[in-house]
Amino acid sequence: MAEIVVETVSLRRTFSTLVAVDNLDLKVEKQQFYGFLGPNGAGKSTTIKMLTGLLKPTRGQIRILGLDLEQNSVAVKGRIGVVPEGLALFERLTGAQLLNFVGRMYGLNRDVAAERTAELLEFMDLKDSADKLVADYSHGMKKKTALAAAVIHGPAVLFLDEPFEGVDAIAATTLKRLLQRFITHGGTIFLTSHVLEVVERLCTHIGIIRQGRLVASGSLEELRAGVKVAGHEQSALTLEEIFINVVGGSKQDAEVLSWL
């Protein structure tokens, strides 16, 4: 039986009268690359913040690696890696200092932290910028640094909020290589992204959220089987076509503006 590493039960989060996440039930198995999709304002970032302990649920339960997150928050946080939407890097440190610091905070001894820092800087093509302040890095370099910091301690689960946003093709290729290597070595990834082509290419399983509720979940083949689009063969449906069908949008051109 497959091991469930991320699970939510009746997860709910409200902000005053706004219901951001509404009775969300998720199950992500070990070594899945899970893409979590939804339109703007659907509750994706709120969900990932709750899953990583950055935001307390209004109600419901979260289990990560079999542990209740509320009761075992420190233990869980030591076994996960996170690239948040805003990156949250210490920008007055150099790249090398930042990775060493993060490694030490996760309990790595000095030699291991230094060794892994050097390996990650090499892998991420940041070696020549290791002694530059992170504040002086480009956006793509900061993304690569954030991902390096998220994996330096060897986590079991990675949570990534829009990791490819604003990243050029070369940096994106490096990030994808690392993520595929992470999955191959037994890790699990929970990713949110608006870049559907990347999700379709990388993810083994997909969940789609709309107005705080999970409206579809499964492999791409399972999602195709559950969607009918007129004039299209189900086996050839793209993730974009599935997504738009599920969330209630339309691929037809919008009504033109009066001056266009």
Q: How would you describe this structure to a colleague?
A:
With 260 residues, the chain is of the alpha/beta class. It folds into 2 domains: 4-79 and 157-247, Rossmann fold, CATH 3.40.50; 87-154. Helices cover 34% and strands 24% of the residues. A 6-stranded mixed sheet has the order 6-7-8-3-9-10, sandwiched between helices. The termini are far apart.
List keywords for this structure.
globular, Rossmann fold, 4-stranded antiparallel beta sheet, 260 residues, single chain, 10 strands
Order of helices and strands: EEEHEEHEHHHEHEHEEHH
Helical residues, percent: 25-40%
| Beta-strand residue percentage | 15-25%
Return the average pLDDT rounded to an integer.
Answer: 91
Could you give the order of strands across the largest sheet? 6-7-8-3-9-10
Global geometry: globular
Which structural class fits the helix and strand makeup? Answer: alpha/beta
Q: Ends: how far apart?
A: 57 Å
Number of helices, counting only DSSP H or I runs of 4 residues or more:
9
Topology, number of strands:
10
Which architecture name of the largest domain does CATH use? Answer: 3-Layer(aba) Sandwich
Unreliable segments of 5+ consecutive residues? none
Total count of domains: 2
Within CATH, the superfamily of the largest domain carries the name P-loop containing nucleotide triphosphate hydrolases
The CATH topology of the largest domain comes to Rossmann fold
At the first level of CATH, what is the class of the largest domain?
A: Alpha Beta
